[in-house]
Amino acid sequence: MTVATATPQLLTENQALSLIESVIKQSAADSVFVSINTSESALSRFSENQISQNISRNRFQITVTSYFGKRSGSASTTELDPDAIAETVGRSQTLARFAPEDPEWVPLLEPQTYPNRTPAFDPATASLSPLARGELVSLVCSLSRNAGVNGSGTLSTSTSAMAVGNSNGLRAYNCGTEADFSYTAKIDSGSSWTERTAWGQSQLPLEEMTQKVIEQAKMSRNPKEIEPETYPVVLDAAAAQSLLPYLIWSLDARAADEGRSFMSRTDDHGQSIGNRVGESMFSPLVQVQRNAAHPLLQLETFFGDGMANHNLELIKDGIPQTLSYSRYWAQQQGKEATGRMYPIVMRGSEQSLTDLIEGMERGILISRAWYVNFVNPRTLEVTGMTRDGTFWIEDGKIAYPIKNFRFNQNLEEMLKNVEAVSEVQRFGNTVVPGMRVSAFNFTSVSESV
What we know:
By secondary structure, this protein is α+β, with helices and mostly antiparallel strands. It contains eleven helices and 21 strands. The chain has helices at 13-26, 82-98, 123-126, 130-147, 206-219, 237-240, 244-249, 253-257, 327-333, 353-358, 411-416, and strands at residues 31-47, 50-68, 71-77, 150-166, 171-187, 190-198, 230-235, 264-266, 272-275, 288-290, 312-316, 319-320, 344-346, 362-366, 369-376, 381-386, 390-394, 397-401, 405-410, 418-427, 430-445. Strands 7, 10, 11, 12, 13, 14, 15, 16, 17, 18, 19, 20 and 21 form a 13-stranded mixed sheet that branches. The chain has a six-stranded antiparallel sheet with strand order 3-2-1-4-5-6. Helix 4 runs parallel beside helix 5 (206-219). The longest helix has 18 residues, at 130-147.
C-alpha cells in the first residue's frame, strides 16, 4: 500500500486491510498477526460553570506479532511511514527469535465467521465541530449558573476503527462512533453526578440530565448521619454499573477449575472438583448477556485477537450459563473458546427508578458507588463508598439526605437479594438497570462528598 502522508488518521476498510496485507507480505516469520487501531476524538472539559479545556486527538497504532514456532514477539509503531512499519516488522521478528517458548501457545486463528451486522456509525457525531460541542457545554454551564450550583464535567465524541489480520487469512475491520457526557453539580454540602454513553451525541439528553443532577444536588444538602448496618437499598443504574462488572470479570473458567474463584466447587478437603455453572446462585431477575448488538451499544463484531464477538448468555434466571474460556484453557478442557465477557448487558424492565423507590418501605438510595475494589476475589467481596447523593427512603419516598457510607458487600449475596430492576442505561460499554436489593452491608460512615 502506498501512503501519501505520515499523519495519523482514521483509516478506511480498504486502507486498513491493504496495510495489513502489505505487512504480512513483508514478514519472514513462520506466522504473523497484525492489528491496527486508529481514532479521532475530541473533548470539552468544563468547571465552575465555564469551559476550561478543548482538546482533539488523532491516534494511530499498528502492532505486529511475529511467531517462530512457539516463540513470539510484538512491536508497535504510531507512524504510517513505510520505513517505520518495515522497521516494526523487523523488530518484532528479532524479539520473537530471542523469546522463550510459550508453554500455553496456540496456533493463530483461521478465518472467522462474524455476526452479520454493522456497528453503529453516526455521521453527525463523527463530524461534530468544536463550536457545536462548545454550544452544548455552554447550555449545561448556563443551566448550572442559573440554578446557583457549581457545574463541572466533560462532553466527548470519538470515531474509531479497528482492523486485524494474520497469515492464516483472517481479516476483519470495524468502525464506529461514541459520545459521552459526565456532569457533577455541587452546592454547599450537597453534590450529585451522572454519566451516560451513546453511539450518537443526539442520544444524550443533556438538558434533562443536567436538570435532574441539579435537583438532586440541592436535595442532598445538610445530610443526616445514621448508623452503619445492613439496610435494604435501591441502587441507581449508575451505582449498579460500578458493581456488576466485578462479578462478570470473575467468571473465568481457569480460575474456577483451579479452585481460585467464587465459581469453584471443592470437596470436603478443599480440593477443586469443577465449577458452579448450572447452579442457581442469584435472583431470577439477574439476566446477563454479552451482547454487542444491544440497541444502546451496537459495538464491534470481533475482539482484538480476531475472535467473533457474538451474543453469549452469561446468567439466565439467576443461573450462570458459561464461563470465560481462553483459547488455551478451552483446548485443555475440551471446551469451545468464548472470547472475553464484554460488553456486559443486564436485562431490565419498564419500571423507573421512582417505581423501585415506591416499592420500598424503608431503606437507602445509593446514587453512586465510588472507589470500588475487591476485598477478596475468592468470595466476591468488594468494598467502596457511596457518593454524590445518598438518601433515606421512608414509605416509598425520598425522606432526607444522609451522610455517605463505606460498604463491604459480597456480590453473590447482593444479587441473590435483588427484588426488582428498572429500565436500563448505558455507561461506557456496560448496559445495566437500577436494582432494589433487600440487604446491603454498610460498615462505617464516610466523609466522602
